[in-house]
Design brief:
Length: 354
């Protein structure tokens, strides 16, 4: 089942082994993509779909120092090298558009204050050019500022299409801005953007409405992580939240919904996949810890439609071919996940080179 085609909105995917978004921090300090990134993504063009690493929709919103952006004409031009390289190998690629929210820090962003639905900081420290410092307390967004950010997502989507991407994935997961609005541990507003699930989801729905209007809903995906506690995230009713979101997302006619099924830190538990499947009628992609056998069985049983693999693709540029052949997989080198240069990035061998 992993190697059957899949129609996801406007996208026809050659297989159901997707490459999950993976922060790799190989852009420069101006958040410009480069030739090395083009090589990396092109190496992985055999994925049914590549989802890029999180990409900044606006300047001065960095959380990782050298993640890429999509807010300037120069970045659009630079990204064209990436999309051209992937398309030349027959691949499909969408850009994950992202705002870090309270996960950004003034020391990474020329002093710009980080923002969030509520003035609640992430616990612990963040790495900055000045070393590790505590996460900053964010500025609680005004309704006018929220409206500006909605339009920034729409502009980023237009820029992604101009750069040659096949679509975008809206990042609503892992404790970044949209997720910060969705979950009641980080959203303690008392206005129209806080309180009920409907209100907490308002920002997400406004972003999706604007992005779909900008590029067409059939080229828009969404990633969610209702259980993941990364970035100090928690919700009092994650299963209720995903049931509500899954049902409401049917109205948007998205290309797909991409759901992270677990918590990195195992602080929150629950089985969100069947809840999503029961309520969402579109293409559902599962992610987090799937083996190829489990993924194939889940697709066969119609529990989901495709699976996104993260570190599997990171270490195996030809992952679908290796799985089909039953070949041994390269093991990922965690020490090079975020380090500069080609080591641990573009030097993982393919089967032919082993």
């Amino acid at each position: 089942m992993l190697f059957t085609p899949l129609k996801a909105g406007a996208l026809t995917l050659s297989n159901r082994m997707l490459m999950a978004p993976l922060t790799r921090a190989r852009a420069d300090l101006a958040h410009m993509p480069n030739d090395l990134m083009a090589e990396y993504y092109a190496q992985r063009a055999s994925a049914g779909l590549i989802v890029t690493e999180c990409t900044m929709i606006a300047p001065d919103t960095s959380a990782f120092v050298t993640e890429p952006g999509i807010y300037s004409p120069e970045q659009v031009t630079a990204w064209k090298k990436v999309t051209d390289a992937v398309h030349a190998k027959g691949g499909k690629i969408v850009m994950q558009i992202w705002h870090a929210g309270r996960a950004a820090h003034p020391l990474l962003n020329h002093g710009a204050v980080n923002v969030a639905p509520s003035a609640i900081a992430i616990s612990g420290d963040i790495q900055t050019p000045s070393g590790k410092v505590p996460h900053a307390v964010p500025h609680a967004l005004t309704t006018a500022e929220i409206s500006t950010l909605v339009q920034a997502f729409a502009s980023a989507a237009k820029h992604a299409i101009a750069a040659g991407f096949d679509g975008v994935e809206v990042h609503g997961a892992n404790g970044y801005l949209i997720d910060q609005f969705l979950r009641d541990g980080s959203n303690q507003r008392t206005d129209m953007y806080g309180g009920t699930m409907e209100n907490r989801a308002r920002f997400l729905f406004e972003v999706l409405t604007a992005v779909c209007a900008a590029i067409g809903s059939e080229r828009v995906g969404l990633r969610l992580s209702p259980l993941n506690s990364f970035n100090s995230m928690i919700d009092s009713d994650p299963l209720g939240l995903i049931a509500f979101l899954a049902e409401r997302l049917n109205d948007f006619k998205l290309a797909y919904v991409h759901l992270m099924r677990a918590d990195f830190f195992q602080q929150q538990t629950g089985d969100v996949m069947p809840v999503a499947r029961a309520n969402y009628k579109g293409v559902l992609i599962g992610n987090m810890g799937y083996s190829s056998d489990e993924a194939a069985a889940a697709i066969l049983d119609k529990k989901l439609d495709a699976v996104a693999f993260g570190t599997g693709f990171l270490a195996n540029p030809d992952l679908p071919a290796r799985v089909r052949a039953g070949a041994v997989l390269n093991q990922p080198d965690q020490a090079t996940f975020y380090t500069p240069g080609a080591k641990g990035y573009t030097d993982y061998p393919s089967m032919q080179a082993v």
